[in-house]
Amino acid sequence: VLGVFGLFFYINSVKNPVKVEDVKCAIGESVISDYNKLVSIAEDKCVSSDFVGSQCSAIVDINQVSVIGDKFVTIGAWYDNEMGYSKRLIDLYNHMVKVDIVEMKR
To answer: Phi-psi bin for 69: left (phi > 0), alpha (psi -120 to 50), beta?
Structure first.
């Protein structure tokens, strides 16, 4: 049984009209600058089995980004439930160890 799932984000609070290319560009810039260890982008056509073993919390499927009208945005993403969650638990553990070491030195 694969533990890979798809999910969609629906954003209906866009104040100004947007174009799908602007949304895709903003996602790309955010992933590269802020979230590159947590989120990645898939540009090729893909299916759930393509993401088995992915350690990312989400893989944005750039082909599943759309704008309906000019203010309603949908973003499709994939994630491996077991691997992505496990990786975040390891990240949390490592962070807690670092915090504990700092506290012990005080």
So the answer is: left
Whole-angstrom CA distances from 53 to 7, 16, 36, 48 are 17, 38, 17, 11
Q: What is the pTM of this model?
A: 0.79
Burial 19-41 (b: 16+ CB within 10 A, else e): eeeebbeebeeebeeeeeeebbb
Q: What is the pLDDT of residues 50-97, one digit of tens each?
A: 888 899 999 999 999 999 988 899 999 999 988 988 999 999 999 999
Q: Within the chain, where are the H helices?
A: 20-33, 81-104
Q: Which two tokens stand for residue 94?
A: 């490592």
* Residue pointed to by tokens 């990645």: 40
Contact 67, 23 (CB under 8 A): yes
Report the distance separating Cα 93 and Cα 83, nearest Å.
15
25: pLDDT strictly greater than 50: yes
Give, as one character, the DSSP assignment of residue 56: S
